[in-house]
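REQUEST FORM: STRUCTURE PREDICTION
Request ID: SP-0412
Submitted by: Lab K.M.
Chain count: 1
Length (residues): 146
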Amino acid sequence: MEVILNQDVKSLGKKGEKVSVAEGYARNFLFPRKLAVEVSAQAMTELKNRESSNQHKIDTDIANAKAAAAKLNGKQLRITAKAGANGKLFGSVTSKEVAQEIKKQLGIEIDKRKVVMNDIKSFGTQECEVKLYQGITAKLSVVVGE
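STATUS: Completed
RESULT:
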């Protein structure tokens, strides 16, 4: 019997695959647990629609990441911080603060975990990298001043 898997099934296949199984296994195990559906024209159409929808979402995410990378590349981000007499900052400038400044100054929402940099502990300029999507990154400089 041919079935399309709704979820990953150990030792059988991944979600969305079309596999051949024994009829009893399908009727007694897979169907009651909603792990698979029987192959039919409607089920095949739904599978193709799901795949095309996922591909469209990926394409949209890549386009958005490239647009954001174009906006971010080469930009300078100015951050003010308090420091002691010798120019050493009280605390440090972290990726969280950089992500907040990107949102405030450039209007691009970025998760703090996507900003790759060392914590800044003194005044000056430091390069940082923003990972927007798999294989798409942007480099910008962070200027810390008073």
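NOTES: Residues 45 and 101 are 46 Å apart (CA to CA).
Reviewed by: T.R.
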